Amino acid sequence: MQEELLIREATLAERPAIADLTRDSYSEYASSRPDKSWLDYEERTRKTILEDNNILRLTALLKDRIVGSVVLCPPYEMRRGNVLVKNIYPEMRLLAVSKDFRNLGIGAKLIDECEKIALSKGFKTITLHTTILMQTAKLMYERRGYSRYQEIDFQPTPGFIVWGYKKQFN
Ligand SMILES: CC(C)(COP(=O)(O)OP(=O)(O)OC[C@H]1O[C@@H](n2cnc3c(N)ncnc32)[C@H](O)[C@@H]1OP(=O)(O)O)[C@@H](O)C(=O)NCCC(=O)NCCS
Q1: What are the residue ranges of helices labelled H in the chain?
Q2: 36 pLDDT band (50/70/90 cuts)?
Q3: Integer CA distances (angstroms), 59 to 29, 38, 165, 167, in order
Q4: Nearest atom within ligand 1 for CA of residue 111
Q5: How far apart (Å, rounded) are the C-alpha atoms in residues 18 and 86?
Q6: CB burial string 90-102: b at 16+ within 10 A, e below
Q7: Which of 105, 116, 119, 163 is deepest in the core (most CB within 10 A)?
């Protein structure tokens, strides 16, 4: 499988498919939020994937089929939930692997690629967000050397903390 997996920047034409894959992958968390709030989140996510000109979209393909994706964002300052988040490092977002292709190393390869790109751009630190709901991802990040970075935490709804994480390269 590994030899057949191709990771590359997504084309413009692939953006809708990536947005669909991301929506389907994250659907397992839908019940964690009130309907309206989840639909708003899905809409914002889709808009980011389709329209944001500042991000890099990576896609994982197996025999021409899109099976995973991730977005790499440059440092930013923006209102997220209840706070103005200033992230001085690049941030991996919206890591998603199609449900039929999980646990095959695709997510790990997408992260490898983001880390490589951040390093190649001269950054010595890369960041991400995760939540208590995303146990597979959280444990995977921690095994890979990511640790808490509270400076970029935020709360989309009161009491629900979206945790910042960072990994520093030597
Ligand atoms: C998180 C996600 C991207 C992982 O993708 P994946 O391709 O299945 O991950 P990999 O096969 O590369 O596995 C990475 C690690 O997680 C482990 N893992 C994968 N699926 C697992 C599962 N269901 N239960 C326990 N461990 C699992 C693997 O054994 C591997 O462990 P390692 O780090 O010791 O090698 C995928 O589950 C997903 O899309 N989830 C929904 C969206 C999401 O939560 N995104 C992350 C948001 S922060």
Answers
A1: 15-26, 35-51, 106-120, 135-143
A2: confident
A3: 22, 24, 22, 22
A4: 12
A5: 27
A6: bbbbbbbbbeebe
A7: 163
List the structure tokens of 122. Answer: 């001269």
Q: Is 105 exposed, middle or buried (0-12, 13-18, 19+ CB in 10 A)?
A: middle
Segment 44-61 shows an average pLDDT of 97
Q: If we measure between CA atoms, which residue out of 161, 144, 143, 160 comes closest to residue 152?
A: 161
**Spacing, Cα 154 to ligand 1 middle (Å):** 23
Q: Give tens-digit pLDDT for 97-115.
A: 999 999 999 999 999 999 9
Encoded tokens for 40? 């708003």
State in Å: Cα 113 to ligand 1 middle: 16
* Distance in angstroms between the alpha carbons of the first and the last residue of the chain: 31
Residue nearest to atom 29 of ligand 1 (CA): 103
- Return the CATH fold of 2-124: Aminopeptidase (3.40.630)
- Domain spans of the chain? 2-124
